[in-house]
Amino acid sequence: MQNFFVKSHGLGNxxxxxxxxxxxxELTENAIIKICDVHYGIGSDGILLNAPSSKADFxxxxxxxxxxxxxxxxxxxxxxxxxxYDYKYTIEKTFTIETPGGIVRAEIIExxxxxxxxxxxxxxKAVFESSKIPVSFKKDECINETxxxxxxxxxxxxxxxxNPHCVILKEELDEKEIKIFGSQIENHSMFPNRINVQFxxxxxxxxxxxxxxxxxxxxTLASGSSSCAVASVVSKMDLTERNLTIKMPGGELKIEIxxxxxxxxxxxxxxxANGILSNELISDL
Length: 285
Description:
Blueprint: E1 4-10, E2 13-19, H1 29-36, E3 47-51, E4 58-63, E5 69-70, H2 74-86, E6 94-99, E7 102-112, E8 115-125, E9 143-148, E10 153-160, E11 164-169, H3 175-186, E12 196-204, E13 207-214, E14 218-220, H4 224-236, E15 243-248, E16 251-257, E17 262-268, E18 270-276, H5 279-284
Parallel strand pairs: 2-3, 4-6, 11-12, 13-15
Antiparallel strand pairs: 1-2, 1-18, 3-4, 4-5, 6-7, 7-8, 8-17, 9-10, 10-11, 12-13, 13-14, 15-16, 16-17
């Protein structure tokens, strides 16, 4: 169906899925912003666009609600995998997806009501090299270094899991604090492509609790790539084990890290609604 959409969420992190071949309008920056707006559009944390790929079974573009494009999204990948399986783009339970942040493998682990429910995604490799994250930093790695803001300094740890992340370890988590300083960290000159931000509290050797400020989206209930980033940092610092539960306001994800820093993420996904974008909305885009 032309202009058909599906809206789903992964632990409260919600995306709209569109098929590039089945929309009759251009997804300009203004169109993305309006569709994602809760008042003038459908409302979401971004758009997942089903696009052709010559390198994998499927291709995915991840569009942020501010109109920018992300390299990778863990929740977005699980939502997209559910869409492909539920709407019969594939009958296979294991398939590959190309993103700007690399090719990943998705696996349908559990079904409910003949729909994908729990999905595992190979999130690729954690990279700590400053130049590859990227971070404007003279040292090879940015681990336990100081970031100077106007009113506060933070000890930061940076990693790429296909997109850039800044992890800050805290003794206590404060939602108000990350909402105040998240944007300042995201847009700091040290990060040429901006950066995702996580405040993290270690609960036990196998459990870490986090708060998330997502690049291009802001305060976010859950994030798969953020969970992978935090798990990578605390593992690198030998503060935890390598099989972790990451707790977020929206729910929990399981992260596994092998000796080569390859990341596997497992979590649930739910569909919220599906339908047709109205001609009136499209005319306003």
